[in-house]
Design brief:
Layout: E1 5-9, E2 13-17, H1 19-26, E3 31-34, E4 45-46, H2 49-66, H3 80-83, H4 100-104, H5 114-127, H6 138-159, H7 161-171, H8 181-185, H9 187-202, H10 206-232, H11 236-263
Antiparallel strand pairs: 1-2, 1-3, 3-4
Length: about 260
């Protein structure tokens, strides 16, 4: 018995099939019901093939407008914020967007050296430690408290690959819209997400879940590698797509870990 998605064949009623089979039928113009907009989403969304095709065209048109050349010196050694003025098209970064790379004093690029990042963070935090301003005015203490919060926030964003990618896109004038992730990754990818969800639901032991977790970690590593390549070229259309993929893989990992905690 196939488990998975309910598919409605035109003029033939309902049958139950797996997500792999559903994808094959979609290619022949079959309507289907799915709930892959997010790993943890429970809503069913009806998406006829014709609608999906239209969405792909719209997505392609949107992405074609944000493929703006952001030129770096020596790959990505030049500041993203400064390079924004070299864009031939696309939006400029918002004046209110904080450049966390500049705040920490490190080069704005996706490939970040962990030791350099930690060293910059510790040095800056030492400079705003409350003990150093215990005798200062309340206004100055509050100012240093705000600086410490900004430094901590910057460190948290840059050390996380997904947040770092989103931040780099923001600095390039390409804000990442999480609500459009499903459109960006395409149907085949969404079907893969559905299959992972089915496998997680069917898993009944830590061993099964660990295998799923290991496989997903490999996907995350691969996607991070593709992200680095996209930012170095730079190819922002691909960077946006890979960012959306990484968001799904992270959610998949969360789902596996949640199932592990339920079993234990």
């Amino acid at each position: 018995m196939w488990r998975g998605t309910a598919v409605k064949l035109h003029h033939t009623g309902h049958i139950m099939i797996s997500s792999r089979r559903a994808f094959a039928l979609v290619g022949r113009g079959v309507s289907y019901m799915h709930h892959v907009s997010g790993i943890n989403d429970k809503k069913n969304v009806q998406a006829p093939f014709s609608m999906l095709h239209s969405q792909r065209l719209v997505t392609h048109q949107k992405l074609s407008r944000i493929r703006c050349p952001l030129r770096y010196e020596s790959s990505t050694e030049r500041s993203v914020t400064s390079s924004a003025t070299d864009m031939e098209s696309g939006e400029k970064p918002s004046e209110t967007t904080k450049n966390y790379f500049t705040l920490l004093g490190i080069v704005p690029r996706f490939a970040v050296d962990d030791k350099e990042l930690k060293s910059a963070y510790k040095t800056l935090m030492a400079g705003v430690h409350p003990d150093r301003f215990a005798t200062k005015s309340e206004e100055e203490r509050e100012l240093k408290h705000t600086e410490a919060s900004d430094i901590t926030r910057a460190y948290g964003v840059i050390r996380d690959p997904l947040d770092r990618a989103v931040h780099l896109l923001e600095l390039a004038g390409i804000p990442f819209d999480e609500t459009s992730s499903g459109d960006l990754v395409g149907m085949e990818f969404l079907m893969q997400i559905m299959e992972i969800r089915e496998d997680v639901e069917a898993a009944s032991s830590d061993e099964d879940l660990q295998k799923l977790l290991d496989a997903n970690k490999n996907r995350i590593v691969t996607t991070i590698g593709e992200l680095q390549k996209s930012f170095e070229e730079p190819n922002f259309e691909e960077a946006v797509r890979q960012t959306a993929c990484l968001r799904y893989w992270n959610r998949a990992e969360e789902t596996v870990r949640e199932k592990m905690s339920e079993i234990n």
